[in-house]
Amino acid sequence: MLALALSLLQAQPTREERVLELVRGLQHESGSGHYSRSRFERAPAPFGERSVFVAHYLDEMCLNSDEGTVTGARARRASLELCSIFGLALEPDRLVAEGEKSAVLDGLDPARRIAFELRGLDDMDWNPEPLLEVGSAALDASEYAWFAAQGYRVFVADLVRYRKLDGDEFTHTLAYLAGLVAFLDDVTDGEDVALGGLTFEREATWDWKKPIERALPGGLHWGDPENAHELVADRATRFTLHCGGRSELGPPISDIWELHEDGAEERMRSRSLGSSTRGAPSVLVLGWHAARIDGQRSGDPPTVHIRVRQRQGETEFVHETDRFTAFFPSTFDLAQPFDVDFELAPGRYYVYGEARIGAAAPR
């Protein structure tokens, strides 16, 4: 019985594993087309001394692709799930009242006095100010101070800061959740989950064009030899790419706006991947896009299966995904050599620039 109990205890997923599964689920249910070209940074929260994370699209040249805020209901649902992973018992849309004062929080654990509030309503237009709820549902500065004076710890963010471009719900939802995770790390006991790798606190690029050229099997070829971006799989195809680790990795990506900012070179150096990625989740963004081989936009795209393998001593770590973005647990070290196995259904595959690696800052 003791052995069975220990086995069941060991089988329980860690907090990190559950958070990563939540992140992968969000990516599956929403677009993430601009994640590979986004920069994340800290910004002041609406109230208090805490900060939030916000995202900037590096490939956004104008606002005509802006489709308004991300879906508030999805972000709030994910927030409740995150808080549950961190051991909180949140009550959604909880009204707190005392005398003439009252306010509604999106989620509150009344026993531990820990809460979150994502202020604002979904807004399809570009507005610099949040489209706020009415009445007690719209948390303001005086109400925040009232909560703080009573010992409540409340994470507050404004929905208007989290946008979607071309249907990309994932990138800004992740930015919001990364701020919430940092807050939960601070206010709860137990395992911390550092999501700095997923927001590219440190990063590197991997120029994989030559590995692709070396690995091309029969049935997979460049669609246009003069434009080496489109790969065509005439039949189901398997091949493997090898990355030699840090010796093959390049500098972080940048955008034309960042290069003209004061201190840009120093910031580039500070976020360069100079050491191991182990100890916190990391990400490999492959920058591919799959399309039907007949060129039709309707219908399902071809299926892909990607397996990333890395041997560390006598142990081989394996991560599998059906996306071109892989979120890794803290056991992986993307600064060391690894292999990427591809299984591609017949189709057209577009390769956009270099692969991007994200890692948390050392702690």
Question: How would you characterize the overall build of this protein?
Answer:
The chain is of the alpha+beta class and 363 residues long. The protein folds into two domains: 13-187, no CATH class; 202-359, Jelly Rolls. Helices cover 23% and strands 32% of the residues. The chain is built from eight helices and 21 strands. It has helices at residues 2-11, 15-29, 72-85, 141-149, 170-187, 209-215, 256-259, 264-270, and strands spanning 38-44, 51-57, 66-69, 91-98, 101-109, 114-119, 153-158, 163-165, 202-206, 220-222, 230-233, 237-243, 249-250, 282-285, 288-291, 304-312, 315-321, 325-328, 338-344, 347-351, 355-359. The strands form six sheets. Strands 13-9-21-14-18 form a five-stranded antiparallel sheet, with helices on one face. A four-stranded mixed sheet has the order 4-5-6-7, with helices on both faces. A hairpin with a 2-residue loop joins strand 16 (304-312) and strand 17 (315-321). The longest helix is centred in the middle third of the chain and has 18 residues, at 170-187. The protein is globular, with a radius of gyration of 22 Å. The chain starts with a helix and ends with a strand. The model is unreliable at 4-9 (pLDDT under 50).
Distance between termini? 39 Å
Give the beta-strand count: 21
Give the overall form: globular
- Count every helix, treating DSSP H or I runs of 4 or more residues as helices: 8
Strand order of the largest sheet: 13-9-21-14-18
Largest sheet: 5 strands, antiparallel
From the helix content, strand content and strand pairing, which structural class follows? alpha+beta
Q: How large a portion of the residues is in β-strands, by DSSP E?
A: 25-35%
Order of helices and strands: HHEEEHEEEHEEHEHEEEEHHEEEEEEEE
